[in-house]
Design brief:
This protein has 342 residues and is of the alpha/beta class. The chain is built from 14 helices and twelve strands. It has helices at 21-41, 48-58, 70-85, 95-98, 122-133, 148-152, 174-193, 198-204, 209-213, 217-220, 236-245, 268-275, 303-313, 334-340, and strands at 64-68, 90-93, 111-115, 137-142, 155-158, 229-231, 252-256, 262-267, 291-292, 297-298, 317-321, 328-333. Helix 2 crosses helix 7 (174-193) and helix 3 packs parallel to helix 7 (174-193).
Length: 342
């Protein structure tokens, strides 16, 4: 088959394939053994240059720009994503794209994290002088500090010489695993140095399970036009009107005084029980049928804690009040919690 520049490309015939399960298992175990050993070998390298890399990233006023070619570039994308999700602004930059205009994404205040096991990747070596001319710091993760990439970097975190787990000794396996592990170690050390919190993590993961667990009641409560407020002294039929006409049909009315302080709550369950005694009760003052001193939520309470209160109290609605005078701020319906998908 003709290929690029007249070179022939060998055809891969789908001939018979002999599968030896014992050999496959042995190869798999060997891969895991080699990769585990490589990660373990990195423990002795988390000293001088590793700590300096942490310091440079923590003091960075810009972004950490992660770059690498081929498999190292794919590992770099993961490292960049981990940094960004744990409080360190970061982006991934392809070296070839950088050499053709995307270098404009890099500024003087950035730290460039360059990944190459061999330290001889041509695209990276062409990129580094331009980056340094801009004044950006360069941190290299490579096998040998004496490589061309290592010599041109400001800080070098060495992987050491590692043998690949590929039967041919060619496909990046052990080296990419070690590179990823070292990148994770760097990202987590920096996150700890930033005193990065669970709440901050949730801000960057609003659609994830942790993000939902760390949501606050104030983020999901009903407010404004969706708040079914009923003034004290009103009649039960007035509560029925509020519960029906309020957007979202909350199934409850919050009875308040002139300063919007909570006096009680009247729910559709209270209404059904009351009507069992006859419709004439619709003319009763709401104070005769409302629940006084109901369970309440605070705006800063975690949604998960609110759900526990709902389960414990066996109710479908709870008012949200401020921390001082019991002023009504909102209402949470159990359906609001279900929509969060806790």
């Amino acid at each position: 088959m003709p290929g690029l520049a007249g070179h022939s490309v060998p055809e891969l015939a789908p001939g018979p394939m002999v599968f030896d399960p014992h050999a496959a298992q042995a190869r798999g175990l060997e891969v895991l053994r080699l990769e585990a050993a490589a990660i373990q070998s990195l423990a002795g390298r988390l000293q001088g240059s590793f700590l300096e890399a942490c310091r440079r990233i923590l003091s960075c006023k810009g972004r950490v720009v992660v770059t690498g070619m081929g498999k190292a570039g794919l590992i770099g994308q993961k490292i960049s994503a981990t940094l960004a999700s744990t409080g360190t602004p970061s982006l991934s930059l392809h070296p070839a794209d950088a050499l053709h205009g995307d270098l404009g994404r890099v500024v003087r205040a950035d730290v460039v994290l360059a990944l190459s096991n061999s330290g001889k990747t041509r695209e990276l070596l062409a990129l580094i002088p331009a980056v340094k001319a801009m004044g950006a710091c360069v941190i290299a993760i490579t096998a040998d500090a004496g490589s061309p990439l290592g010599r041109s970097a400001d800080v070098v975190v060495e992987l050491g010489r590692l043998d690949e787990a590929c039967p041919l000794g060619l496909a990046p396996t052990v080296t990419t695993t070690a590179m990823l592990a070292l990148g994770d170690a760097l990202a987590m050390a920096v996150a700890e140095g930033r005193e990065f919190t669970r709440e901050e993590f949730a801000q960057f993961h609003p659609a994830g399970d942790l993000g939902r667990e760390l949501m606050r009641v104030g983020e999901i409560m009903r407010r404004g036009r969706e708040l079914p407020l009923l003034p004290g002294g009103a009649r039960v039929r007035d509560a029925l009107g509020v519960m029906t006409e309020t957007p979202g049909r909350p199934g409850a009315a919050l009875v308040v005084d002139q300063k919007q302080r909570l006096l009680g709550i009247f729910t559709d369950g209270d209404l059904r029980r009351m009507l069992q005694r006859g419709p004439e009760a619709l003319s009763d003052p709401i104070e005769e049928h409302m629940v006084r001193n109901p369970r309440v939520l605070r705006r800063g309470m975690l949604v998960g804690a609110a759900l526990a209160l709902f389960k414990d109290a066996h109710v479908d609605q709870m008012p949200v009040v401020d921390d001082d005078g019991g002023t009504v701020l909102g209402l949470v319906d159990v359906q609001d919690l279900l929509e969060v998908r806790l």
